[in-house]
Design a protein that fits this description.
The chain has 777 residues and is mainly beta. The chain has 5 helices and 44 strands. A hairpin with an 8-residue loop joins strand 21 (347-365) and strand 22.
């Protein structure tokens, strides 16, 4: 749901947009009627943007927010793309501390934290995302931080979002505005730059589960007018929400440290150089899994480890897991980003250079039962380098051209030393599997888009992107009885599967927008999106690693953005239709010849998503505002052949809830010298399937099903916050109390069957609450 738009006493409030599909004739008539009615209802909207904002400030209307999603500063209501924006101030009020929290303020967004990917999350926008966690699968939704793509897979996408200036969530395929190519969308995070005036802030928070959070930032000049500096620090710890019944220890605890210094050089008015470094250390717990085995799994039949069936308890306490193998997680990330901005007459030139080094070691208990069944130690190293050059040329008062070149190199090695009940497969006792996976990816892109004003009200946009991606992949595994080990020192790597492949695609975009006055914008667009083929890092043979084919989407959008009642009411409506070709689907199953568990990737021939997104923001009275979001999503396979069988009518796309509704009521007032603010947010998500896989119950007729245990029932989440702000001299002091998931809704948010051996899952987090005290100067 969109962030609450506060009365104008706030410096910022959040704006939105929408789109609507070309295929609904009734919408065209409605939009035409809006265009005719708007002048009468807008009530003397000012002709200039400055007068408009001043007028709204005096009368308590909605405040304009500036967005840079199109690489230039614009009023979000004038931007003809599907983008949700939330300011850092609003994130803090809502206690949104990571990317997961964006679900509460964004239509058609589903984020499922992944318990077996360090900081990982399966992010879906309008039903499009990546359900698997292996690093070989590129994310369909890209996470971009200050222009640099963060991570080459879903690992690390559950990013901390404190100390940010704003977050933009762009929905639909992206490629003509960003160096990053994304078929589903982009989450773009922009952080504050160093400033030439000394300022700072510090906050401390305590909450239940012994949560303790300290964070702060300081900025100021080093050489006045030439060099400015900023450093931010965030430390977060808690004891976790789970208890391991096996040993009584806390599980799911957090231990996170982020340190981010940056320098800003301004040798002249036309040149800016920004150097940023980030250090992230994560030593929290991970891999909290629950046994969800049913009568179709060997675990539940008492065959896998003992003659005692280990079946899921339908009434189990979702705060108490039961795992025997100790788990740990140690990750460090080093990131360096060098951004140069140069203004030369009517051309803005930008160079972005980014480097990430990600190192991880973890131990995981995958089975979710208190017996040694399947556990693994995994060291991972990933290096990432990217370079983007971009130019934005204002050719005239009617024509602007944006173009760029992009290159990225990603190299990773992911090893594993795994303990399993290999005796069932005929191996000697104490057999350990050793695995090594390495992949190098080269990505290149060139994009160009031009906006031309045919008239003062009508604008045409034409753009396109050429993408080339090359992957070099090798998989090795084997077995030994010497305690495992890692490549190349450990014996037993006698199975090798390797291949290389490249893919390329040109993806165009056409858009038109019409703005008869400053209170109404109508737009329509068609764009193609592309995700390259790749290799299946969880395959274990030449046949199962692939490569699999690329996927392509055609995305149609139609929408309008409107303001009414002297900018006290904002209503945006969007519609979209996305047709998928060769959609990539990862399916876990059992190899009928060897009995081993394998993951295969198949390309579903055709999938269609279409839906609506409505956003409403209103100032109800002085200090009282409301914002709400409603989204509808229809997702269906149009042609899906699996193992020679047409499963089109038997399965549904994953992570695609039909309805999502949310609303926020916010109140602000002044009592003497103290400002009081409070907000309450409720979000309801319709039921959806998390899982897609082969059936093992012997039923039919379809060999592929949405497993009922992977069905997530509809749920609602309630958040609230109340705060007080006042000044002590020149220091602003803010005290607040917050609560998330106040009704303590608990449910399984994941389901993962391991062929027909066992099944596991992870629940969502329960009620959290706390108090926060902050100072800024």
């Amino acid at each position: 749901m969109p962030p609450v738009t506060a009365p104008v006493k706030h410096e910022e409030a959040v704006e939105r947009q929408a789109n609507m599909t070309i295929r609904y004739p009734s919408v065209l008539g409605f939009v035409s009627m809006l265009a005719l009615a708007q002048p009468a209802l807008a009530q003397d909207m000012s002709n200039s943007a400055d007068e408009e904002e001043a007028s709204s400030t005096e009368q308590g209307g909605l405040v304009t927010i500036v967005v840079t999603a199109r690489r230039t500063e614009e009023n979000l209501q004038d931007v003809p793309i599907a983008v949700t924006v939330v300011s850092g101030e609003e994130l803090e009020k809502r206690q949104i501390l990571d990317v997961k929290g964006l679900e509460m303020i964004t239509p058609n967004l589903v984020i499922n934290p992944n318990a077996v990917a360090a900081g990982g999350a399966n992010v879906f926008i309008r039903g499009i995302g990546t359900p698997d966690f292996d690093r070989t699968f590129s994310p369909a939704v890209a996470l971009v931080v200050d222009g640099v793509i963060f991570g080459s897979s879903i690992s690390g996408q559950l990013l901390n979002v404190v100390d940010v200036e704003r977050v933009e969530v762009l929905r639909g395929p992206q490629g003509t505005l960003f160096g990053a190519n994304a078929i589903g969308g982009v989450i773009n995070i922009t952080r504050p730059k160093p400033e030439d005036e000394f300022a700072g802030e510090a906050q401390i928070a305590v909450g239940n589960f012994d949560e303790f959070n300290v964070r702060g930032a300081v900025t100021g000049p080093i050489v006045p007018g030439k060099i400015d500096a900023r450093i931010s620090v965030n430390s977060l710890t808690n004891d976790g929400q789970f208890i391991n019944e096996f040993n009584g220890e806390n599980r799911g605890f957090v231990d996170l440290l982020v340190v981010s210094p940056s320098l800003r050089f301004t040798p002249s008015d036309d040149v800016e150089i920004l150097l940023q470094y980030d250090y992230l250390r994560n030593e929290g717990d991970w891999g909290v899994l629950f046994n969800r085995s049913g009568p179709n799994e060997l675990m539940c039949l008492g065959i896998l480890i003992t003659d005692i069936p280990r079946c899921a308890d339908p009434n189990q306490d979702l705060s108490r897991n039961n795992q025997d193998t100790p788990t740990f997680l140690r990750t460090t990330t080093h990131s360096v980003n060098l951004t140069t901005n140069i203004t030369a007459n009517d051309v803005d030139i930008t160079s972005i250079t980014g480097f990430n080094l990600f190192e991880e070691e973890k131990q995981t208990d995958f089975d979710g039962v208190p017996f040694p069944t399947f556990a693994s130690i995994q060291p991972v190293t990933e290096r990432q380098f990217m370079q983007e050059f971009r130019a934005n040329w204002t050719a005239s008062n009617r024509l602007t051209i944006l173009g760029g070149l992009f290159g990225q190199f990603v190299d990773y090695q992911d090893s594993a030393n795994s303990l399993f009940v290999f005796e069932l497969l005929g191996f000697p006792p104490d057999t350990v599997e050793v695995v090594d996976k390495q992949q190098t990816t080269y990505s290149f892109g060139a994009y160009l888009t031009g906006d031309y004003r045919l008239t003062d009200e009508l604008r045409l946009s034409l753009g396109g992107r050429y993408t080339y991606e090359f992957k070099d992949f090798i998989y090795r595994n084997g077995f030994n009885q010497v305690g495992g080990g890692f490549f190349p020192d450990a014996p037993g790597f006698n199975n090798v599967a390797a291949d290389t492949q490249g893919w390329s695609q040109f993806t165009p975009r056409i858009a038109v927008d019409y703005q008869p006055n400053e209170a109404l914008l109508v737009y329509a667009s068609w764009a193609q999106g592309f995700r390259s083929g790749g290799f299946n890092g969880r395959g274990n043979s030449t046949e199962t690693i692939g490569p699999y084919d690329p996927e392509l989407v055609n995305n149609y959008e139609l929408g309008f953005k409107s303001e009414w009642l002297d900018r006290r009411l904002r209503f945006n409506l969007a519609g979209f239709l996305t047709d998928y070709t060769d959609k990539q689907e990862e399916v876990i199953r059992r190899n009928p010849e060897t009995g081993a568990t394998i993951t295969t990737v198949t390309n579903a021939s055709a999938v269609r998503y279409w839906g609506l997104e409505a956003e409403l923001m209103a100032v109800l009275a002085e200090g009282l505002s409301f914002s709400g979001v409603g989204s509808y999503l229809n997702a269906s396979y149009r042609d899906f052949i699996f193992n020679g069988f047409d499963v089109t009518d038997f399965v549904e796309p994953r992570n695609a809830p039909e309805w999502q509704l949310s609303g926020t009521i916010q109140y602000e007032t002044q009592i003497g010298d103290v400002g009081i603010d409070a907000l309450v947010t409720y979000r309801w998500t319709d039921s959806y399937f998390f899982h897609l896989g082969p059936r093992f119950d012997g039923g039919g007729p379809s060999p592929l099903i949405n497993e009922p245990r992977g069905f997530i029932e509809d749920y609602g989440l309630l958040d609230a916050q109340i705060g007080a702000t006042f000044f002590l001299g020149d220091t602003e002091v803010r005290a607040s109390a917050y609560g998330r998931n106040l009704t303590d809704e608990r449910f399984f948010q994941t389901f993962a069957p391991v062929a027909n051996l066992w099944a596991n899952g992870t629940p969502n987090l329960g009620r959290t609450y706390g108090v926060r005290l902050g100072f800024s100067f």
